[in-house]
Amino acid sequence: MAGIYRQRHPERTVFYRVLFHYFDEFVAEYENRFEREYGYFRPIIQEVVEKYLDCGNPKCGFAQIRCGDCGKEFLLHFSCHGRGFCPSCHAKRREEWGEWMREELILDTPHRQVVFTIPKMLRIFFKYKRSLLSDLCLCGKEALLKYFKAVAGRELTPGIIAVIQSFGSKINLHPHLHFLISEGCSDRQERFHSVSRFNDDLLQEIFTREVLSLLLRKQLINLTLIQKILRWRHTGFHVHSKVRARSKKEAEQVGKYMIRPILSLKRLSFDKAEGKVCYQYGKDSSELERMDNLEFIARVTSHIPDKGQVMIRYYGLYANAHRGKKKKAGVDSSCPPIIGDEASFIPSRGWANMIRKVYEVDPLLCPRCGGQMSIIAFIEEHKVIDKIINHLKLTFHAERPPPPQVVQQELMMAAEEGATLRAEELQTMINEYNQIRESR
């Protein structure tokens, strides 16, 4: 056994170390310091953060990979498969989703990104009642359908990918919507019509009334406030549709931007003198926000979606129901992937390709001889894991971030110090593990 496969990413260190060292303190202080600002502490926060802190931890299991040329073997740590929160896992998921979206979902027609934003004074309703984010998304969809009917004089159905975002450039509360819309729409007779011009002012007016009607139905605002908002010169509602994707490749890039993670790790740093987390934002990252460790954790974790809350939705020509009908008719057999909260570790068909795209490193290239490696076993039994970890003297420190899905060579020197396993010893452990699984 040659060692552990690991790849270092220094910019991830701040995010991981702050959570590792201060999350317990954050939980203890939450009720007194943050409950009034962010609402009751949600159990999903602790669940997601703990999974992220264990991402790449050898105690959580690993895969055994072997080079077909030189025969050297390595251990490959399991990742947490976190949705949106874990930077490494989300980067891979985003590449995978973008490729699927380009190849199997969207039509070969130009697309338009439409961004819907709401006034600051109304954002507080979405802060404490997260189910309203789904209703807000429906407001955006209804506004688009009514807009198309108004400009075309008939009911038209576009392909829509809708993404709900709750965060702004400073990791602050900023609920808004990103829609990727096909510029081609289908009528009731299945005839395709091109709609390439967007009037933001008209679309904004329709969206404004949809949102205000929603909040009125929910009894969160009254008619007096609605009339006051509509009299303002600038209501705070805004629609932007200037970004146009002319090809599928451009649409993929826009789509991946729409599902970007909560924060950019490259903009994150730590001021040791003041003991504060620093985050760059604004045009060209020219402005800087400073916050203490607990405030940083509060901001980041406040954007973790509730369990089962769908943040990416498909409407119209891209909806599951529509595509299901096409599938039955033999026109289209693809279906949108289901992204769950608790996915088991099952490498996708394009696993290595996704790693190459995200980290620009070949995860199955042997660091010893450059040969091609392959996965030969998955080690998940705790007794076997502990035995291997103790024999290899493996540790998992908070001074470094969890590795991404795969990692480059780290224990080459450990072989000289007697910390590695001989191939036959490792194989004995693998056989013991396989016997345990077969006995079940």
How would you concisely characterize the structure shown here?
With 440 residues, the protein is of the alpha+beta class.
The low-confidence runs, each spanning 5 or more residues with pLDDT under 50, are 1-11, 333-349, 398-422
Choose one word for the global shape.
globular
User: Largest beta sheet, briefly?
Assistant: 6 strands, antiparallel
- Class by SSE composition: alpha+beta
Termini gap: 28 Å
Global mean pLDDT: 78
Radius of gyration: 25 Å
Number of helices: 14
- The tally of structural domains comes to 2
* Percentage beta strand: 15-25%
Would you list the SSEs in sequence order as H and E? EHHHEEHEHHEEEHHEHEEEHEHHEHH
Characterization of this structure:
- The protein is of the alpha+beta class and 440 residues long.
- It folds into two domains: 3-81 and 343-439, no CATH class; 104-262 and 303-328.
- The protein contains 14 helices and 13 strands.
- Strands 4, 5, 6, 7, 8 and 12 form a six-stranded antiparallel beta sheet that branches. Strands 1-3-2-13 form a four-stranded mixed beta sheet. A three-stranded antiparallel beta sheet has the order 9-10-11.
- A hairpin with a 4-residue loop joins strand 9 (268-271) and strand 10 (276-281).
- Helix 1 (13-33) packs antiparallel against helix 3 (43-53).
- The protein starts with a strand and ends with a helix.
